[in-house]
Structure formats: C-alpha cells, structure tokens
Amino acid sequence: MVNFCDELIKVSTKPNNINFLFQTLAVSIIRKNSLWEVKTNDQRLLKSKNVILSSSLIAHPRCIDIMKINSIPLYDAFKNVKDDIVDSILRKTIKQEYLKRKNYIFHVSNLKIVNNFDQKYLHIQFSECLHDDFSFERIIFQMQRDGSMIIILHCSYISTFVDIQLEQIFQILRRIFFKEKKYLNLFDHAILLDTMDWRASQPINNLLSKELQWSSISNIGCSGDWFDFGDFSRVESAMNSSIRLAKILI
Ligand SMILES: Cc1cc2nc3c(=O)[nH]c(=O)nc-3n(C[C@H](O)[C@H](O)[C@H](O)COP(=O)(O)OP(=O)(O)OC[C@H]3O[C@@H](n4cnc5c(N)ncnc54)[C@H](O)[C@@H]3O)c2cc1C
Q1: 118 and 83 housed in the same domain
Q2: Distance 204 CA to ligand 1 centre (A)
Q3: Is the pLDDT of residue 160 over 90?
C-alpha cells in the first residue's frame, strides 16, 4: 500500500503540498466561520476549506466503542446545521452492518519444508460450505525474502467473532488438505505469529448512493467502500468513489 500511495502521489499535480499524519486519528470535526476544524487524538487542530471522509468511521456508531467517545463526531458536527445530504449520509450509515474478519498469521521457518512447497505465492479461496461450517474464507501462502513462509488464514463473520482454538484450526486444515503432503508438512511446522481482528472489514448492506458523495452546502465529501458502485468489488468501489469525488472537485 505504501508503494501504491507513493506512486499515486508522484503523479499528483502538487506532490509537495501533500502532508501525512501517520498514526493520527481524527476524533472530532466542527465547522467554524466556513472552515472545517479537525481535532486529532494528539490534540492537533487542522483547518481546511474542504473535508473528505475516506472511511465511514466517524459517521458510524462503531466509532463510539473504537474511539471511546460518547457520540458520533459527524452527527455532533451537524447538530445545528441543516444539510440534507449529510442528514441522508448519517441516516443510512448508522444502519450499515459490516463483515468482520479475523486473520491468523503463521510462520514456517523450516526452509527445507518451504522449498518443497514449490510455490512462492498461493491464494486459495475456500468453498461456501467450508465457510459456513468453520468461517474459513481463504488462505494465503507467501514465501518471504529469507526463504521462510507466512501463511495467513482469513476467517469472516457476519455477527460476532467466533474464537477458534489453535488446535482446532490445524485439525480442520489437516482435514481439508488431507491428500496433500506438502500442505500438511507446512502446517506441522507453522507457529502462530499473531492474530488480527478487523471489526468492520467490509460493509454488507445499506450502501450509500453516490449522489451523497459531496455536499456543496458544507464542503464535505465522502469516499470509500461504503458507497454503492454496482457490481464492483469493495476495493474497486472504494477506488471508483475516490475517482468520482476527485472529478467533482476539479
Ligand atoms: C482481511 C481483509 C480482506 C479483504 N479482502 C477483500 C477482497 O478480496 N476484495 C475486496 O474487494 N475487498 C476486500 N476487503 C475489503 C477492502 O479492504 C475494503 O473494502 C477497502 O480497503 C476499503 O477501502 P476504503 O478506502 O474505503 O477504506 P480503508 O481502506 O479502510 O481506508 C480508510 C482510511 O481512512 C482512515 N481513517 C478512517 N477513520 C479515520 C479517522 N478517524 N482518522 C484518521 N484516519 C481515518 C483509515 O486509517 C484508512 O487509511 C478486505 C478487507 C480485509 C480487512
């Protein structure tokens, strides 16, 4: 993603005007004297003529839990302002539900076993019935520069996370790949490095109409996978929404 963003920035018209704030969370926004003021979690105050929300986070109730705040920042910003577009954004986004994902990240350091696997990158999508039975979505095998291997098992859930014991994960994987020695060998040598919980990895309903992407009353825009771009995947929808918004603003 870093390389991808670097390339995008290089082709922009004024790359030097782009500032990054890493590990910084916007926790509140207010509109004052026709300017947006964005407060960050490290108490910085950013002022801007326009503001773009690249994610639904500060418009969705999940932010209350994530940011440990009492109300939805976008709702607060528009408490005393009449803006039909933002009203619709809030009404619909609040109802949006998300697919949750849990990633199990394994490492195989035995170079001989990895070498025998003979594939540098392999992405396997599990069938619907395996997903229904075990929540397994896909598994990715990726050889590292040092010849070791990272295996990532993606599990996805509609409602709550289901914690699967490590032993059970390996049992299921061995059953799925029971005919394939090269996979079984990898599983025998895999150790868990970490797990990642994605509380809201993908919106699954109440996608927003693209007509809601920009409000010229308040100079606020939105882009991301929470917009409806037809049959495209979520990643493609997110990109299309950004391109569309950029064209509106040029
Ligand atoms: C494990 C996993 C696998 C996936 N696989 C697929 C797939 O195969 N195909 C597919 O189509 N989709 C997939 N998705 C979904 C896909 O990743 C998302 O739909 C896509 O990344 C959404 O892009 P986005 O730009 O809308 O949002 P994001 O990529 O979430 O970007 C939003 C940005 O806004 C920033 N941000 C949000 N709130 C704040 C705040 N308050 N302050 C500061 N910054 C903030 C975030 O840090 C982030 O940089 C997957 C998701 C996960 C987690």
Answers
A1: no
A2: 13
A3: no
121, 167: one domain = yes
Quick: pLDDT tens for 47-71.
Answer: 999 999 999 999 999 999 988 999 9
Query: Are 17 and 65 in the same domain?
Result: yes
Query: What is the count of structural domains for the chain?
Result: 2
- Per residue in 81-115, pLDDT tens? 999 999 999 999 999 999 999 999 999 999 999 99
Q: Which residues does a 6 A CB cutoff place in the pocket of ligand 1?
A: 25-26, 54-55, 57-58, 101, 103, 154, 198, 201-202, 224-225, 233-235, 238
Shared domain for 78 and 89, answered yes or no, is: yes
Q: CB of 210 within 8 A of CB of 228?
A: yes
List, in sequence order, every beta strand (DSSP E) within the chain.
26-32, 35-40, 45-48, 51-53, 98-108, 121-125, 136-143, 149-157, 191-203, 214-215, 220-222
The answer on 92 and 37 residing in a single domain is yes
Rounded to two decimals, what is the model's pTM? 0.88
User: How far is residue 212's CA from residue 220's CA, in Å, rounded to a whole number?
Assistant: 10
- Atom nearest to 154 CA in ligand 1: 1
CATH number at 181 reads 3.30.70
Q: Which domain holds residue 169?
A: 99-201
Between the CA of 1 and the centroid of ligand 1 the distance, in Å, is 11
Counting from 1 in the atom list of ligand 1, the atom nearest the Cα of 242 is: 25
